[in-house]
Design goal:
By secondary structure, this protein is of the alpha+beta class. It folds into 2 domains: 260 residues, no CATH class; 122 residues, Conserved hypothetical protein from pyrococcus furiosus pfu- 392566-001, domain 2 (2-Layer Sandwich). Helices cover 32% and strands 24% of the residues. It is built from 13 helices and 21 strands. Strands 1, 4, 5, 6, 8, 9, 10, 11 and 12 form a 9-stranded mixed β-sheet that branches. Strands 15-17-16-19-14-18 form a 6-stranded antiparallel β-sheet, sandwiched between helices. Strands 2-3 form a two-stranded antiparallel sheet. A hairpin with a 2-residue loop joins strand 4 and strand 5. Helix 4 crosses helix 6 and helix 6 packs across helix 9. It is globular and about 65 Å long.
Length: 414
């Protein structure tokens, strides 16, 4: 069963919470981070993307950047921009996008659960990206940004969250992107004990939705500190890391679409002719069109949208990976027609989260940067948990979650 504990969070005062909070480090580059933090001394980007305070072109993985992050973090605490809560507690974090709100519990997940398989994952991680987050954690002695977890909904936990959000939130603001963020602090010790018991008795597994590299890095730091502490007891804060746990029925995965730099020597007409061998052409139009159900794909090339549906004979329902739309697309279009076999390394394909819409796909093709675009139908939370439960790994760039968790509303020191 899942271990999710309350912890003594480090948080900003209410009047600067909105200004201090920021998007996750990995959804922007250095130039974008610098622009976002421009004129805002309290932005946590001075810690999560500390290269913005270093000389231009400083290696983002250098000791200079990590030292700057540590110095800025220390200054944030010394100046009272981040303050510890007096006792361990859970937090309820709400995000609102397009009128829809999802509520998660911020708690400390156990590093051991990651290695035992209680925390289930669906993506591969890259050692270099893990090491970057591990280095930052070593310098800061903190999980500076939360990871995004899901769990199979538990009515008793839902009831506690519903009671909590009837109260006035600690933070309540709308970010520049239009998404709403609220945070409640659960200070009642008995309620905190009840939540902890419910996780250990009702939640057999949790699932990494977003943040696989941060999760792996935090778990490895726990192992590292355990190995170097001769007085290790298992209760030290380094044995745990911060995650926001959302019930699965609150979450909605967005589509993750593909952009193609070329058609492998084929003309658009030849490409469509070959596609028709494996896909049924449902509609051709100059107006934007999107898939409305699984196994549909929308191709944009040469100013025209074509709605496609996989022919029944190419659909393989033998396992949860084979039945994914991204698998069908790779096996019957990207690999045989375009010669794109490795989505992680190929320079001939790019990916765009569904939050940007079809207009972004059209813009990049019309600009001449890309030759074609393919919009997919999003996977479901059930598909994600089925794959994670089976021990399989999803193909790259399958899931896109929005809204992103804001960093800085709560920090876990280790």
């Amino acid at each position: 069963m899942a271990t999710v504990k309350p912890f003594r969070g480090l948080r900003p005062p209410r009047d600067i919470a909105a200004a201090l909070s920021c998007l996750p480090y990995d959804v922007m580059n250095s130039a974008e981070a610098a622009q976002m933090a421009d004129g805002n001394a309290v932005s946590l980007l001075h810690v999560t993307r500390a290269e913005i305070d270093c000389p231009l072109d400083t290696d983002v993985h250098s000791a200079e950047v990590y030292n700057m992050a540590a110095a800025n973090f220390a200054r944030f605490k010394a100046d009272g921009w981040l303050r510890p809560d007096p006792s361990p507690c859970y937090y309820v974090y709400a995000q609102t996008m397009n009128g829809r709100t999802q509520y998660g519990i911020v708690g400390a997940a156990a590093c051991e659960d990651y290695f035992s398989g209680v925390i289930r994952k669906h993506e591969l991680t890259r050692p270099d990206k893990e090491e970057d987050r591990m280095a930052l954690t070593r310098y800061l002695n903190a999980n500076i940004e939360p990871v995004f977890f899901a769990y199979k909904a538990v009515p008793e936990i839902d009831a506690i969250v519903a009671d909590t959000v009837r109260q006035t939130p600690e933070y309540d603001f709308t970010a520049a992107d239009g998404f709403g963020h609220q945070l409640w602090v659960i200070r009642d010790a008995e309620v905190n004990r009840r939540i902890e018991h419910l996780f250990t008795s009702k939640v057999p597994f949790t699932y990494v939705a977003d943040g696989h590299h941060r999760t792996a890095a935090a778990a490895r730091i726990g192992q590292e500190r355990k190995a170097t502490n001769p007085n290790h007891t298992g209760t030290e804060e380094y044995n745990f890391f911060m995650a926001v746990h959302f019930p699965d029925n609150h979450l909605q995965i967005m589509d993750y679409n593909r952009l193609l730099r070329d058609l492998n020597g084929l003309t658009p007409t030849e490409f469509l002719q070959k596609l028709a061998e494996k896909f049924i052409i449902l509609k051709r139009t100059t107006a934007p069109v999107a898939p409305t159900q699984p196994r549909q794909f929308a191709l944009y090339v040469q100013g025209e949208w074509t709605l496609l549906k996989a022919r029944p004979e190419i659909v393989d329902d033998s396992d949860p990976i084979s039945r994914l739309d991204v698998t069908l697309l790779s096996r019957h279009l990207l690999e045989p027609l375009l010669g794109i076999a490795d989505l992680r390394t190929s320079q001939r394909i790019d990916f765009v989260g569904g939050i940007r819409g079809l207009d972004e796909l059209k813009r990049r093709v019309d600009s001449g940067e890309m030759k074609a675009a393919i919009a997919l139908y999003p996977v479901s939370m059930q598909q994600l948990t089925d794959i994670a439960d089976s021990g399989n790994i999803m193909p790259p760039k399958t899931t896109w979650f929005e809204p992103k968790l804001r960093s800085g509303l709560v920090i876990h020191e280790i």
